[in-house]
Amino acid sequence: MKAGRSLSRDFGEVQNLQVSLKGPGDYVSQADRKAEEIIHSELARARPGYAFLMEERGAVPGEDDQHRWIVDPLDGTTNFLHGIPIFSISIALERQGQLVAGVIYNPAMDELYTAERGGGAFLNDRRLRVSGRTKLSDAVIGTGVPHLGRGHHGNFLVELRNVMGEVAGIRRLGSAALDLAYVAAGRMDGFWEPALSPWDIAAGLLLIREAGGFCTDMDGGQEMFDKGSIVVGNEAIQKALLKTLKKPLR
Asked: Can you give the pTM of this predicted structure?
């Protein structure tokens, strides 16, 4: 993937820019925009007229109102900035409001996750299935931790406290798209996060569904794009995690 090669080259340069805060920050912003430009150009050439929803450009209308690309050109910007090789490109295709295809690519590890509605989910050429664990006490659960200027820290601490007491481990990778891909691959048993955008989760939602998993918002509904919250896992873990998240602080 051309955008992945671009990010890989830029990632290699980031470690040379750590001497200044402004330097690497500006460089990563440029890398983000460059990847988005490549993706937009290639997809527009392949499917002329399709609309876009992109992290940097926002909504870009198209002549074809039945199809929309949902794109995050660099999910895990902070990791990228700090030289941590956990970041991804996330692309999903929506047809008449339904997710029909998704791709998540980690160029640093050359891991390509793909899914097509009704066709299963894959990591490179390997078919994916969500984890078979059924007890939270055996489960490793991913999440996103709100930081400076993001999210309601108090609410999250209540959720974290409740989940901590029920699970075998909690992980924070720093890329929601990869978190969802890891759930689809069975590397993590579940994931929750309360404040995400459609481009963070669109491809990952389809991956998990095609790998046999379940996805809801934090109210148990299907308004993940509108509410920005997500709880995923296999049937048993997703249900138990959702219930745990709703408990009051003990």
From this structure: 0.90
Q: pLDDT by residue (tens digit) across 84-120?
A: 899 999 999 999 999 999 999 999 999 999 999 999 9
pLDDT in the model for residue 23: 46
| CATH architecture of the domain formed by 136-245 | 3-Layer(aba) Sandwich (3.40)
Highest CATH level, class, for 2-127: alpha beta
